[in-house]
Design goal:
Blueprint lengths: L2 E8 L3 H16 L2 E8 L2 E4 L5 E7 L2 H17 L3 E7 L2 E5 L3 H8 L3
Antiparallel strand pairs: 1-3, 1-5, 2-4, 5-6
Helix pairs in contact: 1-2, 2-3
Length: about 110
């Protein structure tokens, strides 16, 4: 069936602490000036923005790599439960194998 929406649920406190720990790892690995991470939760319609990451650094490579690292963290390790809803019903979804392969780049 066709996907109509996505429902994202968190474990309050734990999800935010995990994201903060990933941010600290990024700041340790790259010389960053500032980072903003916003991740929506609740019911999200198809086509709506789910996540926003902005990274400021003196050098673009550090900013791009840190952003990529943080996105890979959010896709594979962050404490979110994702339920896909559609015309055929609803199912809980997990990260794809490619998401885990992407995450391996960071050791």
């Amino acid at each position: 069936g066709q996907v109509e929406s996505l429902y994202l649920q968190t474990y309050p406190g734990v999800t935010e602490a995990g994201i903060a720990a990933a941010l600290k790892r990024a700041q340790t690995r790259w010389p960053l000036c500032d980072v903003l991470i916003m991740h929506r939760t609740g019911m999200i319609a198809v086509g709506e923005v789910i996540v926003f990451i902005a990274v400021a650094a003196k050098h673009r490579r550090a900013a791009f790599e840190a952003c990529d690292f943080l996105m890979d963290y959010l896709k594979t390790e962050a404490i979110f439960w994702k339920k896909q809803m559609g015309s055929a019903g609803s199912i809980w979804i997990e990260p794809r194998p490619q998401d885990y392969n992407d995450r391996k780049r960071w050791g």
